[in-house]
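name: query_chain
kind: protein
chains: 1
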Amino acid sequence: MDHPRLGRYPAARHVIAHLSDTHLLEGGAPLGGRADTVTNLDRAAEQLSRMVGGLDAILVSGDVADLGEEDAYRRVRATLEPVAEVTGAQLIWVMGNHDEREPFRRVLLGDESGDDGPVNQIIDVDGLRVVAVDSSVPGYHHGILEAETLDWLDAVLAEPAPNGTILALHHAPIATPLALMDVLELRRQDELAEVLRDRDVRAILGGHLHYPTQGTFAGVPVSVAGSLAYTMDLSAPARHLVGIDGGRSFSLVHCFDDAVVSSVVPVGTFGEITSFGEQFLAEVEALDEEGRLDRFSRKREWVTDG
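structure:
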């Protein structure tokens, strides 16, 4: 159902839920003996399930499993597949440095080929092309784009997509204030920048850093989703790398005709401070512009006890 526009911008053409770094272990064991990754993923899934009709894709940008265990992949898939079904969203999996290519392919992608090369994919989301590239290095945690991946990406981007392209990879090409994370950064960024030049890539989605952040790379907006496992504390003392059991989030990426907007969604159950329901929104929509300003923009006096 079409609703009246209440402001300058129309509704987004595509909406992507961007999750990252779930880090599940076999049997649902707590990560580091402490972080309850299963409950965190369940909470995110519950929140996403409320968005029936409002999601086009659910993209998990790597480190799906902490040790690449088959059972961990099955658990994440079993949690998110019903969410994709109820919301009508496509489910997109991206390789991370903690993932292992063979079980990732087999359990998440249904690929029994045994191929041990980079897991690169093209997914069409109603005219929006999502290109997932594998930045993992077998046996290591830093990232690299292998020559075959760069050549493949260059060929894919040679033809524009109807609604543009979203590039997804685990090791996002973006600066971080965490010095040790520089060791684990993406290699061959200059070559990637050349491939992206004058192409239709509208945004780059990544993970790896365990905190939500944004920037630009080669003139393209970059959005990094927070981790569902644990969060890096950027307020820790300088030259320290501290992961905390809190602050978890995912992102919502809204793709408009001429812009891409990424928003952070806290994961958890919190008390409401204020709430306006669907009935109130319908009342505002039924008014003309002057009426809307009077109903929702005009300042009112707050009445307090005492």
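note: Residues 37 and 203 are 28 Å apart (CA to CA).
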